[in-house]
């Protein structure tokens, strides 16, 4: 093979760290080189070589969408790293051996869900439900949906697919993203992407793969995915901890990607609080459910991503201001959530006796919460032992609903204190029949019903009471619950939940979610063979078999944050206003 041919057949993911030089725009190394060749019309037809295409000019005849693609002239590999390229019909529908264990069946289904780009595994589709006539976007690779798949592959020693996913999605971060002539911040990660095979320049005899990202401009509701970049950082850290390969996170382009996400999240705005202000539908609950403002799920992921990023950022002079802002935000965020989001029977009684309309720097009821907001269901729901972090906090409004992912990830990330973490698990045990019942785990509790449902959801026919995001039960939450239980040395809770799920998941063909109060029905619009239901179960099984592996996801409590929290707690709430007392950029 000639030297030039050998160069062009290099693995696209092996990009020299020293060869990247970043200014205002990310240098794509070999990709940029190939793009310059394409601009000169000197097309090189080489399998496995990819380039960063440019929107409007290069693909205007293929799509009217003003987005950009990663493209590759390639042939799909028969097998990569033990993963078969044949991911058509799920094994459960193809007449294969039905005597396999639930775990073996799950692994077969997960491998069949793998998506390939240029012959390389790059992610997993959201669902492989061939019984559904409406595909919508379930044939795409979602950032948040791939996280349990990626963790499962890491724990199994299949590292390539996770590495490819991290690096290819990183390249999508810089693409132009516009809706109605408006572009969001530079660091935004896509919600999902799809691998499309298209004719090359109208020639049907030659095809190329392109990655087509969706940043929310095609999503239902047109909401940008705030959680995608946060999950990407969490997975990047897990990859490094699991493989021992720190070269990926040390790459210049990866370091730049981390900084872009952080700068987007830490940007100054009008908000007075350290929590991230987001719109409804910007996370796992991606439809209108009244979570706009400062939802707990986003804050827990934000806190976790900040800690993970701090571990991975290279100590450079150019990063000093960013790291300083990051540390300040961590302290303020942890205090704000632990102090104002926490609720147990003692705190509930305090709120019941709150005075209102306190105009003072020393106010106890800082957010002017009216005691009449306490819902009747909460009085019966709150156990004598246990507590949780509420779903949202805004002026004159507390969302008292229990959101599972936000509370669980607050345990994993150490956003909740040790005592609070145990109290959350105490509540899960005490309210097992409400939060778990016949299938783990309720995404939120309770469901919105009646007039409240009509006003808050807009009469959403998919989020009817005790269905989908409105009190539905999601098996994928098994893996997050397992990590939290292992961290708090209470794995028996997760074991009980996994045993319960095993009775139904395979028989029910791995649904996306379950309906009704006790999760007895498969969701009325639930997709079958939902990949993150499969992967969530597998990760839970793998972690229970090897609890020490959970450390790749856990953030231990930071001693500096604990000390700062103690100082702030001793000075709150009745402290004199002063300019130099605390050098914090946020009011806490």
From TrEMBL:
Q: Which reaction does it catalyse?
A: Hydrolysis of terminal non-reducing beta-D-fructofuranoside residues in beta-D-fructofuranosides
Q: Which GO terms describe its molecular function?
A: endo-alpha-N-acetylgalactosaminidase activity; sucrose alpha-glucosidase activity
InterPro entries, A to Z: 6-hairpin_glycosidase_sf (IPR008928), 6hp_glycosidase-like_sf (IPR012341), Glyco_hydro_100 (IPR024746)
Is Nuclease among the key words of this record? no
What does the entry give for GO biological process?
sucrose catabolic process
- Sorted UniProt keywords: Carbohydrate metabolism, Glycosidase, Hydrolase
Q: EC number(s) on record? A: 3.2.1.26
* Top-level enzyme category: hydrolase
A single Gene Ontology CC term: chloroplast
Name the family.
Belongs to the glycosyl hydrolase 100 family.
* Protein role: Invertase that cleaves sucrose into glucose and fructose.
According to UniProt, the name of this protein is: Alkaline/neutral invertase
Biological source species: Durio zibethinus (Durian)
The uppermost taxa in this organism's lineage are:
Eukaryota, Viridiplantae, Streptophyta, Embryophyta, Tracheophyta
Gene encoding the protein: LOC111301291
């Amino acid at each position: 093979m000639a030297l030039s041919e050998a160069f062009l057949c290099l693995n696209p993911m092996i990009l020299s760290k020293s060869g990247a030089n970043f200014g205002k725009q990310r240098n794509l190394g070999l990709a940029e080189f190939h793009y310059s060749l394409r601009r000169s019309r000197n097309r090189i037809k080489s399998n496995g070589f990819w380039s960063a295409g440019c929107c409007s000019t290069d693909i205007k005849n293929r799509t009217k969408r003003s987005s950009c693609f990663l493209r590759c002239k390639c042939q799909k590999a028969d097998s990569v790293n033990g993963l078969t390229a044949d991911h058509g019909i799920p094994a459960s529908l193809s007449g294969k051996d039905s005597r396999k264990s639930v775990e073996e069946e799950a692994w077969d289904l997960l491998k069949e869900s793998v998506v390939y780009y240029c012959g390389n595994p790059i992610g997993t589709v959201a669902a492989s439900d061939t019984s559904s006539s409406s595909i919508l976007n379930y044939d795409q690779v979602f950032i948040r949906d791939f996280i349990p798949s990626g963790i499962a592959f890491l724990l199994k020693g299949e590292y390539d697919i996770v590495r490819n996913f991290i690096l290819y999605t990183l390249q999508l971060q810089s693409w132009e993203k516009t809706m109605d002539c408006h572009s969001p911040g530079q660091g935004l990660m896509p919600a999902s992407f799809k691998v499309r095979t298209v004719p090359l320049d109208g020639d049907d005899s030659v095809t190329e793969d392109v990655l087509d990202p969706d940043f929310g401009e095609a999503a239902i509701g047109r909401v940008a995915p705030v959680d995608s970049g946060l999950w990407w950082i969490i997975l990047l850290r897990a990859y490094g901890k699991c493989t021992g390969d720190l070269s990926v996170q040390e790459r210049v382009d990866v370091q730049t990607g981390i900084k872009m996400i952080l700068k987007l999240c830490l940007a100054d705005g009008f908000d007075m609080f350290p929590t991230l202000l987001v719109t409804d539908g910007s996370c796992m609950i991606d439809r209108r459910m009244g979570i706009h403002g400062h939802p707990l799920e986003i804050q827990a992921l934000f806190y976790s991503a900040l800690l993970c990023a701090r571990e991975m950022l290279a100590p450079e002079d150019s990063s000093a201001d960013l790291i300083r802002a990051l540390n300040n935000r961590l302290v303020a965020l942890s205090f704000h959530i632990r102090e104002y989001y926490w609720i147990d029977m003692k705190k509930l009684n305090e709120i019941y006796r709150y005075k209102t309309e306190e105009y003072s720097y020393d106010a106890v009821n800082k957010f002017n919460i009216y005691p009449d907001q306490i819902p009747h269901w909460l009085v019966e729901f709150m156990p004598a032992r246990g507590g949780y972090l509420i779903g949202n906090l805004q002026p004159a409004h507390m969302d008292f609903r229990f959101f599972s992912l936000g509370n669980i990830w607050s345990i994993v990330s150490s956003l909740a204190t040790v005592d609070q973490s145990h109290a959350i698990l105490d509540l899960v045990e005490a309210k097992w029949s409400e939060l778990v019942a016949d299938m783990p785990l309720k995404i939120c509790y309770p469901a919105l019903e009646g007039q409240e449902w009509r006003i808050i959801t807009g009469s959403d026919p998919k989020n009817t009471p005790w269905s989908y995001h409105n009190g539905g039960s999601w098996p994928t939450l098994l893996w997050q619950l397992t990590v939290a239980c292992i961290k708090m040395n209470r794995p028996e809770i997760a074991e009980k939940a996994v045993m319960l799920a095993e009775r139904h998941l395979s028989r029910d063909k791995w649904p996306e979610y379950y309906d009704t109060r006790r999760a007895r029905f498969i969701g009325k619009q639930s997709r079958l063979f939902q990949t993150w239901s499969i992967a969530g179960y597998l990760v839970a099984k793998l972690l229970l078999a090897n609890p020490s592996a959970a450390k790749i996801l856990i953030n231990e409590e930071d001693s500096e944050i604990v000390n700062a929290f103690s100082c702030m707690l001793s000075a709150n709430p009745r402290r004199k206003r002063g300019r130099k007392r605390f050098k914090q950029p946020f009011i806490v």
